[in-house]
Design brief:
This protein is an alpha/beta fold and about 400 residues long. It has 16 helices and 13 strands. It has a seven-stranded parallel β-sheet with strand order 3-2-1-4-5-6-7, sandwiched between helices. The longest helix has 27 residues.
Amino acid sequence: MHIGINAQLLSFSESYRNGGVSHYIRYLLQGLGEQPDRHHYTVFVNGQDVIDQLGTTHPHITYISAPWSESQPATRIAWEQFTLPTEIRKRGIEVFHSPVNVLPEWLPQECASVVTLHDLAFLRFPEVLTRAKRFYHRTFTVRSLQRATMLITVSESTRRDAHELVGVPLERMCTVYPSVDTKFAVEINEEQLQAFRERQGLADGFLLYLGTLEPRKNILMIINAYARLRRTHQVQKKLVLAGGKGWLYDTIFEKVQQLDLIESIVFPGFVAENEQALWYRAASAFVYPSLYEGFGIPVAEALACGIAVVTSNVSSLPEAGMGITLNIDPTDSTALTEALYQALTDQQFRQRCYEAAPAIIQKFSALRMAKETIAAYEQAHALHLSQRIAFVQ
């Protein structure tokens, strides 16, 4: 088959754009490059610099540079809705994959379509998104899910949401878990970790959150629980809230000032990829009590580094934690406080997280993700052919 992939949201920028969905696209392309070349792929990316930074080339993958920056949403959306369908038709693409929620409206009739759905936060928690994001997803994402030949969901939780909230038939969906980079499996000796802590002014260890700074991540709850942890358990380790600014984040800084925690909470900003494993492995524990996640890749990454993890008991986060993490009600600040204290002091739990690292890397591998995605392409192609034959008859 000739398969097209819209990789416009693949980004190497030092901002929240180089986050979960960008990593998903990159690891998918990496995994496809390692597969036998029985299919050919045409991948539409955002500029020649993205092609250059991908580094490796594969004879069965062709990259096409589009002229629009991913930081200009309006022009990118116009390109994918009006120009991309012409490219698909011109190149004879038989299966087209939109790996981030949205299909072009006017796909050629002869082309099967696959969409990866990352989450339905805009329906579950619309208040945590800007008005523009809500409008975009309600306009484009819902219709794409209903039109797609096959839908890939990044967790069973998201698959259930798509069925419940959008009415997508279960038989038209498959779950393919995202990939965790193997760099997180590489051991770092304690001397290097301590040197890193000292450079960051965190020699005594620290609690870590790593992700976009936005309301859905429940960061205000982390701050409140951390303040109680200091009061009730006299924990003096600092809290690190690492990651790029997303949207509606001003209340986070206001809360830190309100609780007089300016000296105790560190905001290192966007963390470059070559430092992510250092931050995870140097941390005393990882906290990610998100209100809702399509998957929650930071939870799996932290576990792959062998670090004790506290996360939520909602949506997909128990799947990402594989039954290893401490899972709490993300609206219960007291429960989060006590879970953080357990993660810092319960040696049996900490050892269990450390020993689980190899299983996490195996479960969430790029090779497995690519194989299961190819199976979805093949299923979509067969289903589309059968639908067209039935229509003609």
